[in-house]
Amino acid sequence: MYNTQKNREIIEFLKENKDRAFCAEEISRALNSNQKGKSTVYRQLKKLVENGNVKRLADAETRRVTYQYLDKVSCSCHLHLKCVVCGKLIHMSDSISASLKSILLSCENFTLDQSSLLLGKCSDCLNK
Looking at the predicted structure, is the pLDDT value of residue 103 above 90? Predict the structure, then answer.
């Protein structure tokens, strides 16, 4: 993968905001991209996901796709919690994720997709 200027800008933006996930439109706006730049952002995000630098998360309720930088953390073994107030994205521990999946499978015969987001409020927003 070529390390283009736009690629570096996207990675830098996501690194600076690694506890949040953004849709492609939000990333494009943050980088002040024009209409042509938006399509570049979409293409670069696709490549970054394929290379494992960025995680693609799909919200089952809204069908909104967001992207988050992977900071040497493998997201393939755990679930994610997303605060509906501030947008913070929290990596649930692998062991708790496995326990929750096991409980859901045994009690409800239901499995969670790894890209699923569990929505709620973070501790900061709860205390406000």
Answer: yes
